[in-house]
Amino acid sequence: MAASRRTWCDEGRTHFEYIVVGCGGIGSAAVYWLAKRAKADVLGIEQFELGHHNGGSQDHSRIIRLTYHDDRYTKIARETFQTWHEVEKESGVQLVYKSGGLNMSRRGEADLIMENYAKAMDDQNIKYERLDSEALMKKFPQFEVDKDVISLYQPDAGLVDAALANSVHLQLARGYGASILANAPVIRVLRNDTGQISVQTTKGTFTCRRLVVAAGAWINQVLGSVGVHIPVTVTQEQVTYMGTPYIKEFTKDKFPIFVYHTPGHDFYQIPVHGNAATKVGADACGEVVTACTRTFTPNAELEKQSIDFMASIAPKFIGPVVQTKTCLYTMTPDRHYVIDKCDHVGFSDIVFCCGAGHAYKFACLIGKILSEMAIDGQTQYDISGFTKNREAITNPNFKPLFQMAGDSANKAKL
User: Under 8 Å CB-to-CB from 47, ≥6 apart: which residues?
Assistant: First the structure.
């Protein structure tokens, strides 16, 4: 018992069947799912302290939803709810809260985006409701919107408690015997003389048979040493928490999450959870940075933009700013995930994921997928739309488009 209080790692051991680099949302889930099957043959390596705020997986809440604009997501969305439920059942800790969710826009501004969301749900028999402005305000009187605002309402959406989920994944993994090594940046990955994968860190060198990389904004720093480069853009994003005096009207049992589509970007909102504040942000609007050059200083203009937007559609949502906090998005040019192996450079024993700045809702499922790819060489889930062998990843001239379903908005203008 005393040893487990001192460290999360099996001290002195240097070889594991499976190593996971990165213990954020996706990485912590991979450690958990691997440990369920491989027990003590799993090591998770984190370059910072556990629960740090340097990447993209921290904070009280993240949106979870069945609603998506593309069936590569909607066809696995139900499974992500199921995997979260399995973790909740095993841990006894609630991680997912269903508040219902909306996709919203102003008629004539993002019609094709809205129809793509509707079609993707129709294709997977996901039930939803179309609401005009009157029906929206009747259902949720907290809104005060113009008559041309339209919505799609899906009752299964809600939020995941991100920081809590990461901790639960790792603690359950430890219960199966996994080791977790924190504050150990990876220096290099290579194949040693015995054919094993060697992971060199600032706290020593560890070897494994299969490696999982879920390193977020540091993905190319880790994969680069085996000759893999994923074209990503890292941005510093932010969310603002506000101290509304009308707390009771914006709790998660009274107010839904939503994504509001505009011609240039999307706003999103999450009701009260984890503190007494409301939460709003603008998706993919931050400055381009690197993991090393980012700051933790919020952008005052983006903060005002988000607050003004919420004031225009739900005035009681607004209150004094409690906190505006930053995080990192690591986005592929087409804003879709990459879940694949490094087989093209002779490392089929390395699997990796880039979550493209919107993967937390799928983190538990992606962790399971990565564990299956590492152990079995393949996964039972359809990830054919997330391979590295697509134009956005292979064509250096592919023009990035970071707004979710933004290609639909462009087509709508033609």
Answer: 22, 183, 184, 185, 186, 218
